[in-house]
Amino acid sequence: MQQRTKIALAVALALPSLTAIAQEALQRVEVTGSRIRQVDLETAQPVQVMSQEQIQKSGLVTVGDIINSMSSAGVPAFSKGTALGAGREQGGQFLDMRNLGSQRLLVLVDGKRWSQSVNGYTDMSTIPSALIERVEILKDGASSIYGSDAISGVVNIILKKSMQGGQASIYHGQNEKNDGKTKDYSLAYGAGDDKASLLFGLTYTEQGPVWAKTRDITATTNGPDRANIGLGTGPWGRIRQVSATGGPTGFDRVLNHTGGPLGDGVGADSRNPNNYHTFANGVDDLFNSTSQMHFLTPSKLTSIFVKGEVALPWNMNFKTTAMYADRKSNRTVAGYPLSSTSQAAYPVYVDKDSYYNPYGNSVAGAGNGQDLFFYRRTIDVPRVTDNNNRTLHIDATLEGEFNLGTNPWNWSVGYNHSKVDGAVRGFGDLNLLNLKKALGPSFMNASGVVQCGTPAAPIGLAACVPFNILGGPSASTQEALDYVMSTAQASYGSTVNSATADITGELFQLPAGAVGIAGGIEHREVRGQDVPGQFEQSGYSSSLAGNATYGRYTVREAYLEANVPLLKGVPFAELLSLNAATRYSDYSNFGSTTNSKFSFMWKPIRDVLTRGTYAEGFRSPTLGDTFGGGSQTFASYLDVCDSLHGEAARNPTVAARCAAAGVPAGFRQKNQTGADVGATGAQTPFPFTTGAGNSFLQPESAKTRTLGLVISPSSVPGFSVSVDWFNIRIENLITGVSATNTLEECYVNNVSNFCSLIRRDATGQVVDLQIGNTNRGKVETEGVDVAINYRLPRTRFGQFSIRSESTYTDSYKQQSTLDSEWVEYAGEYDIFRVKSNTSLDWSLGNWSATFTARFYSSQKNRCYSATQVIYCSDPTAAASWGTGYNRHGEMWYGDLSVGYALPWNAKLLFGANNVFDKKPEINYSAGSATGGNSSSSSVSPELPIDRFFYVRYNQAF
Questions:
Q1: For the chain, which residues score pLDDT lower than 70?
Q2: Cα 559 to chain centroid, rounded
Q3: How many Å apart are CA 560 and CA 555, to the nearest integer?
Q4: DSSP label at residue 360
Q5: How far apart are CA 930 and CA 922, in angstroms?
Q6: 94 touches 78 (CB < 8 A)
Q7: Dist. CA 155–CA 106, nearest whole Å
Q8: Alpha helix locations (H) across 276-365?
C-alpha cells in the first residue's frame, strides 16, 4: 500500500478542494501525528496544509521562508540578518513554531526524521521545494509518536511520489532597489508504472545579499536620526602608554587624518608625534562598522534528489530516497577592532624599537623610546566567513501488507542515514604571532626599505614584513597585510543512523468501527564533531579561541498507539473516538523517559467536530549541549547597572543591588573604544565565554493541551471554520543565556545563580561573563489558532475562494528558576499578539490570481532613551527588560501574484510581495546589542526591507 498522508475535512485549512481526497477515501492512509492507517479522513490533530500551488503563489522559493511566513511561526533561529553570528548553522534556514525555538520542532520528510546539526537544528533549505507535493504542519505535541523534539509541533514535508514526464521551472526575483536577487532553477523527471517508478530532481537556488549601506535606514546602527551614535573603533592609529599590568594608561592620542567615520581619508605621517591629537571620541576618529556589513546574508544551494519504488512479490514494496545538497553561504562584517589586548593572554604592543613607533627609540633617541598600547580597526580587510555545508540523506524501506482474518495489517522496516558536514574559512582576523614580529623591532636598511629586526640582527625580508599599523589604511601595504592576516579554518559534521520497524492494523470491530493499533521500535545513533583549526584553538589569532567538540550517543525506543471508536451514528454522537499513545526512550547520555498522549474526537452532529489533546513531550540534550567545547565571544549587551541607560538609572532596587556587587556610583558601561555606551548598549571590549557543554544536562519535559472546534456546514458547501486553543508548558529548559539576560536575571530579577557568572573589575566594567547551557526554569505559551476557508460557488466572473489563518498569542512567559517570578514577553519584539494571513484566490480560464494580506499587531520595543518621551511612548511602564518601552503600531503587508496557463503546457507566474511598498521602521529591540537578530542596524531583518518583484516560468514535458 502506498504510504500517503491526507488531511480530513475537519482540518482542511489550506487545501483548495477536498474532492481529490474524498476520491481516495477508500484507501487506508497515515495522518501526520498518528501511525495508525485508517480510511476515515477526519482527525483529532490540528493540522495545517500547504499545497505546491500555494507555495508557488507565495513568491518564496525556500521551504524555510515559506513555513516561517505562517501565523503560528516564530522568529527563525540564525536569521539572515545575524551577520555577526558565529554558529555553523549560519546560512541555513530553520523553523520555529510558537516562538519556542527551532530545536523544539521536529522536521520529517515523508514521515522520516531529516538531518540535524551538532546543535540539533534541521536546515530546511536542503529540501528541494520544487519536488514538494504538500507540507503538513501538526500544531500539537507528538513525542509519543515521533520521539524527541516534537514539542511545539511537527512539520512533515510530503515529496512527490512519482511523475510521468518532466517539469522544469525558472524563477527570478529581486528587491525594487535591485538587490536581494533570488534565482531558483529546477528540473524534475519521472517515469514508471504501478510496478516500478523512478523520480529524479535537480535544483539550484541562489539568494543574493542586501548590504546595510544601501539604505539610509540600515546604514547606521541606530538609524539616520542618530547616525553618529554607536560608532566603533576607528581605522586610524590610536596610542596610549602601557601600564605596569599591561593595560592602557597615560596619554590618549589618535593620528591626524582626513575623512570621516567611513574610513575614507588619508592619514598623516604616523612617525611624527606632532601628527596626533587628543582622542575625545570624535565622530571623525571612529568608524561606522555597519558600512562594511551585510544586512541580509547571501547563500547558494545545489541539490540532487532521487526517489524510487519497486513492487515485490507477496504484496511487498521497496522504497528508497536519496538526496545530496551543497550549500555555500558567507557573511561579511567590518574589519577587526584590534587592540593590544585583543587576546589578553597574548598582548601585542608597538615595540619601542619599531621604526614606525612615534615615541620609539628611532624618533625620540636611543634609550628614550617606550612601547605603545594601540587601537586600530583593520578595515583594510573586512571579516568574511565562508561556510560550505553538505547534507546527505539516504533511506530505504521495505513494507508489506497482510490480513489477520478479515482485518488488514501493514508492516515496514527501514534504515535512515543522514549526514551533515562542512568546512568554514574565515578571512580578516590577524595572526598575533606575526603581528608581534611586524610591530617589533624594525629599521630602515641601506636600500631604504624598512626591515624587521635591528641593524645588528636583521630578519630576512622574506621572513618578516614590518607593519605601519598606526598609519591607518592609507599606509598599509599588501605585503604587510598578507603577513599579519590569518585564514581561520574549522570543520564540523554530524551523522544520524537509525533502524526502524513498524506495524499497524485493526484488532477487532466495535459497533462504531475498527479498533486500530500501531507499534514499533527504533534504534538511533547520533555522533558529531565541531573542530576549530589548531591555530584558532591556540589563542594566537584575533579570531575567538575555541575548543573542539566530539560527541556520540545512542537511543533505543519503542512506541504503541491505539485508536478506539466509541460511538457512531447515534443521537448527540455522530462520532466519538479516543486515541492513546506512549513511547519509551532510552538514551545512553542521560537515561530513559516515557511520554504519553491522549486525544479525542467528538462530532455531536454531522457538521460540527470537537477535538482535544493532552500530550507529554521531551527534548533530549544535543551533542553541542552535552559535549560542546566552548569558545570566546565578544557579546553585545547593555549593562543594567549603567547609571544613565541601564535599569539602575530608574529603579532604586536595581541600583542598590548593583552597588552591593561593587559597582561604583555613576558607573558607565564602556564600549570597545573606551567611550560610554549609548542607550542600545555595545559590544564588550573583553571576550566572554560561551557554549561550553554540560554533561549533567537532563532532557526538557513538556505538557501540551489543545481543544478545538471545527464547523463545516453542509448547507454552505466549501466552507469550514476551525478554532483551536493551545497551551504548551516546557520545564527543565536547556538554554543558553545571553549576556544581557544574565545581567537582567542577576540585578533585575535578583536570581543569585546568575550573579555568580559575572566578574567585574574595580571600575565596575564586566570583564568576564560565563554564557553556557543549563537546565533552568520554564516557558509557557497559550493562545488560539483560527482558520477560515470558503470556496465560493463558481460564477461567470470566475472561481473565488478565501483562505485565512490567524494566531492569537495570549501569553508567552518564562520563569528563569523555580523561585523567580514569571516574566511575560507576549506583545514584545517579534512575539506578536496577533499574526494573520488572509488570501483571496481567483481563477477564470487560463488566468489566476492571489492576493494575500499579512497582519502583525502592535508590539512593545525598547526605547532609545527612557528619559526622552519623544523616543519612548511609555517611559514608566514595565517590560520584560525593565522600565520603559516604545509601542510600535500594527503592520499590514500585501502580496500579489498573477498566473497565466500557456497553450504549450506551461505556466507563467509573476507578482510582487509587499506590493504597497511599506517602509521598514527603526526598532531598537531588533539590534543585536539588545538581544535582537539584526547585527548591522535597528531594523528587523524578518520583515520586508523593500518591494520585491518576481517571475516564474513552469514548463511540463
A1: 1-29, 38-43, 86, 692, 772, 866-871
A2: 31
A3: 17
A4: S
A5: 14
A6: yes
A7: 6
A8: 361-364
pLDDT at residue 5, as a whole number: 33
pLDDT digits (tens, 9 = 90+) for 832-891: 999 999 999 999 999 999 999 999 999 999 988 766 656 688 888 989 988 889 999 999
- Report the alpha-carbon distance of residue 739 to residue 760 in Å, rounded: 13
Amino acid present at 142: A
**CB of 680 closer than 8 Å to CB of 669:** no
For the beta sheet containing 758-760, the strands, ordered from the edge strand earlier in sequence to the opposite edge, are 629-633, 688-692, 766-771, 758-760
Helices 652-660 and 739-747 cross at an angle (nearest 10°) of 100
Please give the full DSSP string across 630-685, using - where no structure is assigned: EEEE--EE--TT-TTTSGGGT-HHHHHHHHHTTPPTT---B-TTSPBP-TT-EE-S
> What pLDDT score was predicted for residue 86?
65
Q: Give the contacts of 462 (CB within 8 A, at least 6 positions apart).
A: none
Structure-block grid coordinates of residue 815: 520563569
- What is the DSSP secondary structure assignment for residue 453, as one 8-state letter? B
Distances in whole angstroms, Cα of residue 65 to Cα of each of 124, 216, 284: 9, 26, 40
Strand partners, 234: none
Q: Is residue 291 helix, strand or coil? A: helix
105: cell is: 520542532
Residue recorded with cell 495522518: 31
User: What is residue 195's predicted lDDT score, i.e. its pLDDT?
Assistant: 92
Angle 395-400-401 from CA coordinates, rounded to 5°: 150
What is the β-pairing status of strands 153-159 and 132-138? antiparallel
One-letter amino acid at 729 equals: R
Grouping H, G, I as helix, E, B as strand and the rest as coil, residue 105 is strand
Q: How far apart are CA 375 and CA 32, in angstroms?
A: 58
- Nearby residues of 527 by Cβ (< 8 Å), 6 or more positions away: 494, 495, 551, 552, 553, 623
Pairing outcome for strands 513-532 and 485-510: antiparallel
Cα(398)–Cα(135) distance, rounded to whole angstroms?
24
Closest CA to 605 of 576, 572, 577, 578: 572
Short-list 134, 138, 106, CA closest to 32: 138
Residue 403 DSSP SS3: strand
Q: What pLDDT sits at residue 688? A: 80
Q: Name the residue among 574, 524, 580 with its Cα closest to residue 36.
A: 580
What is the residue type of 493?
A: G
Closest CA to 939 of 212, 332, 99, 209: 212
Amino acid in the structure at residue 587: Y
Q: CB–CB of 336/233 below 8 Å?
A: no
Cα 61 to Cα 323, 472, 496: the distances in Å are 18, 44, 27
Q: What is the pLDDT of residue 335?
A: 95
Task: Give the per-residue pLDDT at 93.
Answer: 84
